[in-house]
Every structure is written in C-alpha cells, then in structure tokens.
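[Archive record]
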Amino acid sequence: MLEFEWPWLLLLLFAPLLIKPQKIVVSKPTKALRIPFFSQLEAAGLTREGSTQHKKSKLLQALKVIAWVSLVVAVSRPQYVGELIEVPISGRDLMLAVDISPSMKEEDMILRGYQVTRLDVVKSVVSDFVDQRKGDRVGLILFGTQPYIQSPLSFDTVTVNTLLQEAFLGMAGRATAIGDAITLAVKRLRDRPQNSRVLILLTDGANTAGEIQPIKAAQLAAKENIKIYTIGIGAEEMIQRGFLGSRTVNPSRDLDEKTLQEIADTTGGQFFRARNTAELELIYEGINRLEPIEQEVRSYRPTRSYFHWPLAVSFLALLGIILTKLVAPKLQTLTRKTEG
C-alpha cells in the first residue's frame, strides 16, 4: 500500500495559487514582412514571434507545474508499506548435535513398515521436532571424528531441516567425538540469554575421538548454564542371519549410557533411551513439553521509500526549463543567421 510519511506537506501543492499570476502578452501572428535589418533587430531582442512565443510559454508553464508537483510529492516521502510481519523476540536457543558416524548406518529400526538405518529415523523424527519449534532459534551440529556447524542458530527452521536431510554417514569422519561436539555447542550458546541455552545430543556410541572428554565438556556447559538432553539410539536386540543360521545380537553394545546419563545429570538435563522409532518420537515430544516454545513476538510492516522517483522527475523538469529559456533562443538565432 502506497502511503506518504508526511502527507500534510501535500498542501504545498496549492502554494503557487497564492502568488499573483503575471499577465502573458502574446502578439497576434501577422503577415510576414521582409525587413532588411530584421536579423539585427532579432539579435538585439527587439522582435517577437507570436505563435512561437506562445508555444514556448505553454511549455514553460507545463514544466513548472510538473517540477513543483514532483518536488512536493518527493518531500512528502512516498513509501510502500508491506503486510504485517511478526518476528519472535524471545525464543529459546536449541542446538541439536547429531552423530553421523558410520555406526548410524545400522538397520535396526523400523520406519513406516520398512527396516531403515538409525540416521533415517533420526532425520524423520528430528525434522518433525524442528518444524514444531517456530519462534525458537535452532542450530545443527553434525559430529563424527570432528564436529562442525551444519547450521548456526537461526529462526529459519526450514533451512535447518534441509541441511539435516542433506547429511550423510561418514561425512564427519569414522569415529565419535562427543566431548568436542559439546564443547563446540558451548562456544555457540554461551553468548545467548542464560535461561534459554539448550543442547540436545543424540548418539549411538561412545566417545572414541576428540581432545575434550565428554564429562569435562559437560562441566564447561554447566558453568555456562547450558542444559543438555542426551539421547542414546539403537535397538537392544537384532537377528543376524548367516551360513550357520540365525543369532540374536545387541547392536547397541557400544552405546555408553553411563556417560550420557552423567552428562545430563551434570548440566541439569535428562538422559533418554530410544530403542525404536516410537520411543524416539516420544522423547522429542517430551522435550517439547520440558522446553515449551515462548510466544512473545514483535510485529512490523516493511517499508520501501520511493521519494527519489518524483525528485528525479522534478530535476528533469527544471532542466527542461533551463534549456528552454537559455539554450533554445540561442539555437533559434543561430539557425536564422545561417538561413540569412
């Protein structure tokens, strides 16, 4: 919607009406009379051409009107005001740390009737969780041998989800650096408001790489008032078939539940165990209840100023007035001299 920032200035459009108009004297066109010294009189400014002067006067009047109207419109600051946009101002800061080490390719989970890898289940469940966190700043850390920021904290949950779906096994190395992942999250969260710092760490193994031990990293997080929810994922039983028959194995034998529990206890969070897709969904629903979304928002209407367009028109009209008054007569005189 087009509006004016200072609409009362539009009253200046009527200001020229307060000035007493000057009477324009236009000589009637007469029959041409050959005068030998006509060119000298014209050069001295002692002659007029009725019709030409009349057209010139009309043109100048039109240019003056255009220049004045455009100038008044420009100083009134025309601007386009967009639709109302709401921006959250007090959401939580949720950092998600997801293990993408090769062990996450274990196909011990069921999703929509199909046996899939652990990472496939994590992508599906975490994607729904992120979609529900409108108003929160959500970030994503992927870790293997090393952690890295896949997405910084952002209100753009669509992009966070896209980057999560693009993650693939082994892209961060073949080991598991839980301590380094927590330390990286601490660096990103410690400058955020104290009452909103939350890390949700998901893994299927134990710390096998990195420079910082998980418990030491958890202590650093606790000093920064960062709450950590830890999730251990992976089934406890799985049937493997071979040449000698089938046997039941525990695909989660490497999961370090004790350390994950201690990390959560140190930071005031909770440890969750997800043995299947349904349990993982319940865990994220539980975290949603533990960390409710804050709804305080600020609204605004985007504006775009367009004063430069009428200002440019006014400038061109003034330029036309100058050319008409100064340059055109000289060109006309020069043309006549050439013809004479």
